Structure formats: C-alpha cells, structure tokens
C-alpha cells in the first residue's frame, strides 16, 4: 500500500491513474487493490473536501470515511465521461473471456442471479464487480467496450481489479417461469439510462449519451425473466452462450 504523508492517494482504476487529495485514511483501505506507487504519473487529479463529504446523503449514520469513499466514486464518475468512460450500475462477470452485465433496479435480484451462475459454472466464472463497474472505450478499439472492476463493488464486496470485454448486457425481471430472449436496441435505451451515472456537466452528459449509444450498438442485449432457482441460471447461460444444457458445478 502506498500512502503519502500529505494524504494524497494514487490509484489506477479503469486504466486511469488518479491522484486524489483525500482526508480520511479509510478511503485508502477501501481502495487498497487499486493503489499505485506515489511516483507514478497521473492522468486525472482532484481534491475531496469536507463540503463534498457533507453533500453525500447520510441516512444510515455512516462514518465520514465511508462518505468520502462514496464522494470519490462520484468525483470519478463526473470526470471520466470526458475520457470515453462511464459508471454502469450492474453486476458484471466474465465467462471464458466474455463479459456479461446484469442490469436491474436495486432489489430485483441481479446479485442473487449472478450467484446462481457461480453455483452453475464454478471456476469458469469470475466476478469483476458486483455493483458499479466502469465501462471504457479506446480509440484503437472503438467497437469494444471494456468493463472494469472498481472499489465500489456493493455491500457484498464482490469483485476484483481486472477488466473484461463486455459483450452481453442482460436486463433482469423476476418471473415464475424462466426465459432469456434477445432484445432490440430501441427497447433497451430507457432501461440502460436508468442504470448509468449521469454527470452534472453538460459536456459530460453529451459524451455519456454518446457512449451509451456505442455500448448498446456493441453488445448483445437480453431480457432475462427468472425465478431464484439455479434453473434460471441454466436457462440464461444456455441462451447467451448457445450451449447445450449445463450441469451445475455443485453436482
């Protein structure tokens, strides 16, 4: 862990090097997987103030260092759209080198469904981020969205510091019967907008809208209707990866 005496934290998230002038040491602890040496050059720099921390909603009597951790996420999310990246509220994982994102309103069951995939696939699957991955495009690969792990990975702390090419976005609904069917881009636009962090800057908003359009054009889109049984994971996995019926890894 690299922490300089002036409380300047340097970290690499989504292949951006950030220099963050923060206040509370708990923020470095939360970002431990992403810290880099203090002599690294940085792409983006910003400062967190007590006013930034006060602006975060504190309806759970959270500590100041936790609120700073959230404020850092917000600052990054406000900045990165100007650099071809944005934050997507989703559960993200990789199977055989292919990224899959589950998008849904909180409480719908995207984390539960992801855990069912883990039960089904075992070590074939790697969780990249359970809640707030960053999606980034590069100029030399304009049609490939890369999805990155971040320190903001949900209350379950599911994820790691890695990236995966995102090829499938799945919108999840609860249902008694399981199904997984392709979606048209036009049907996914409103759904994806509800899951993207929208920055305050007009220029950043314009860039974010353009990046969302690129994302939907680059990925296969799926509607998953599922119950909370492992058969839901089997149905979706077989449809998305065009597989014969799979055997659960727990069998």
Number of strands: 12
Terminal Cα separation, in Å?
40 Å
Kindly report the average pLDDT value: 92
Q: What is the CA-atom radius of gyration, in angstroms?
A: 19 Å
Q: How many individual helices? A: 7
Morphology call: globular
Helix/strand order: EEHEHHEEEHEEEEEHHEH
Largest sheet: 9 strands, mixed
| Helix/sheet category | alpha+beta
Percent range of helical residues: 25-40%
Strand content: 25-35%
Oligomeric state as shown: single chain
Low-confidence stretches: 1-6, 247-251
Summarize the structure.
This protein is of the alpha+beta class. Helix content is 30%, strand content 28%.
Question: How do the helices and strands line up, and which of them pair or pack?
Answer:
Layout: E1 8-13, E2 16-21, H1 25-30, E3 44-47, H2 50-54, H3 64-79, E4 85-87, E5 91-95, E6 98-103, H4 110-121, E7 125-129, E8 134-138, E9 141-148, E10 163-174, E11 179-182, H5 185-193, H6 202-218, E12 220-226, H7 230-240
Parallel strand pairs: 2-3, 6-10, 10-12
Antiparallel strand pairs: 1-2, 4-8, 5-6, 5-7, 8-9, 9-10, 11-12
Report on this model:
The structure is a single chain. This protein is α+β, with helices and mostly antiparallel strands. Strands 4, 5, 6, 7, 8, 9, 10, 11 and 12 form a nine-stranded mixed sheet that branches. A three-stranded mixed sheet has the order 1-2-3, covered by helices on one side. It has seven helices and twelve strands. A hairpin with a 2-residue loop joins β1 and β2 (16-21).
